[in-house]
Amino acid sequence: MIKRKRFIIPLLVSGVLLLIALSVYIARLQFDTTLAFTLRDRVGKHWVWDAKITIKNRVIRSFYQSDRGPVEYKFTGLEEGEATLSITAPNYQAVSLPVDLSRRENRIEEPIELIGYEIPGLSHFIVFEEWENKDLLLELRPVGEDGTAIINHPCLDLWIGVKLSAQVKDGAYVREPTEEGSYRGEELFLGKAEWEWDPSPETIFRYHARISSKKISSTRAPYWVMDYLIIVPDPRQITTAEIDSFMQKAPQFNDEEELIAFLESGKDKFRYFFNTLWNIEGRVD
What we know:
Elements: H1 2-30, E1 33-37, E2 39-41, E3 51-55, E4 58-62, E5 73-78, E6 81-88, E7 95-101, E8 105-107, E9 112-114, E10 122-132, E11 135-144, E12 159-169, E13 172-173, E14 183-192, E15 194-197, E16 207-211, E17 223-233, H2 240-247, H3 256-264, E18 270-281
Parallel strand pairs: 1-8, 2-9
Antiparallel strand pairs: 1-5, 3-4, 3-6, 6-7, 10-11, 11-16, 12-13, 12-14, 12-17, 15-16, 17-18
């Protein structure tokens, strides 16, 4: 009987200690100081590449998130009281937010938006076109100064102007691709092309523009000419509305020298890329 009591007593003590530890753990969970929030690119409304988020010497690193929208982040085990939430990312303006942490859960309801200001090392764009349901789709591929594709970068609010013309040579429509002697015939489209941003992790080039077939004039020309102008703004210097207002005063695409001289007047606020593509297979009605 004595031996049995000696055996039961340590078990009881261990059980009590386990209950105490479990109670402390549950109480800690109930009163843990946390901070939840979401983060996104201001223009694209999706993930921010290579974001570093810090508070009270705690760090979260963010790269790709869901392509359906921002994912909630949460710091746990924080000390209550005043603190600063700091967020940095390459080619974005840094953000610092003062927060007053209370016991238990804290939440920043509105998404924190970071403002991207440049596509790093951008040298030029390569534009590829294809037809989809009679609409002309444009894929914009940013290329770096080293000649390689720029893959991860902020979403900037590009201004994309496009002019489509029939391709003519010797007074007749061009019937096969040619490198010399062609010129622009009748105008088929002139205006601003709206773009979309693809946040999917597997996507390499994220800017896509679309020109509706309803806006393109009918033609029998088998080949077309496309003049395009891409303006990459520095949002620290100019707003989207200001670019729209500026471009309403721009010369026509036909006068390339005058257009470039006009664009040069704003080069401290944006970069521009002007180019012409010949021998584009048109959609003949």
